[in-house]
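Figure 2 data, in text form.
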Amino acid sequence: MTRYRFSEHQSDFGPCGAIGLMSGTSLDGVDAAFIETDGERIFSVGPAATLFYEDSLRLALRRLLDCAPNLAPDDPDVAGLSRLVAVRHAEAAALLARSAEIIGFHGQTILHDAARRRTWQIGDADLLAHKTRLPVAYDFRRNDVEAGGEGAPLAPLFHAALAADLGKPLLVVNLGGVSNITWLGADGTILACDSGPGNGPLDDWIFAHTNQAFDHDGEIALSGIVQEDRLEMLLSDPYFARPAPKSLDRLQFSSLVKRAMEGLSVADGAATLVEFTAAAIATVPVPTPPRRVLVTGGGRHNAAMMGALQRKISVPVEPVEAVGWDGDALEAQCFAFLAVRTARSLPLSLPTTTGVSIPMRGGRIVMPNLRA
């Protein structure tokens, strides 16, 4: 394995070990994963681990989502949480007990508003580099958003590398706090967008009514009845009429969900929100129907969600484990992959994945201060 280095000649860059760190909009913690890659191919997949946020941190981050649009970048509360997020990410990286040449650090998204050219991921990259003694690639979305792209999703190029030997067309669905899709064509075409809500609205509904963090195995949703009039109200949001590529903030539908769910039982509300997520995914236009659908993200553990998707899609809907991928580690692996692409100055996004005008490089790299 080649030792990590920055090369002016991309052909000189061999496969290297990279650690990816991802803390998604579900706000549950940090996923860490190790891969060997040259930023174009995945040579091997190593260990993965999850470090869960303590309740106090999760609640603080959730409150931050609500007030982020009005916060200054140097707000002291943001700075404090940014340092704490970096510490937790360093702890997650240490769980892998593997040496690496670079870390991909997505950070914790607290705001995403591509229409206003804003995307905000907190996390002190300098502190993370200091604690891990490794170069840290971060700030992956900014270049794309500033160039007029959506800044999301960023996983499609990684999905394409993983699925190099799989039959096409193929649809990969990520069920995180927001849902996004990657459509891979037999001719190499890659299309992507945020399809709509993911686990976010459902998790918020369950927490508000039961104090549980999520609907375990979809048990509550499975006991409820979908309220079709409320579902129709949810699907009337103008977002669904917009053509792809497009992207979402986790709280995009919060006010609409609050109105639509008024007066519903916990179970009926959960069932309706599951159907909302599945319907949004199933109705995204793609050039040709996929041969199969592979689902990653925490939502694949929700039996109600997977059942709703299968009812709406006529081809097999399977968790990504069906093809040997690790759905709990996939996003973290993605940011390890993107870290190496950043080091090689390779594009992170395409016109067909984020709407940017040209393939867009991105990310920044901070080096550790080994004398500190």
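Caption note: The first helix runs from residue 55 to 67.
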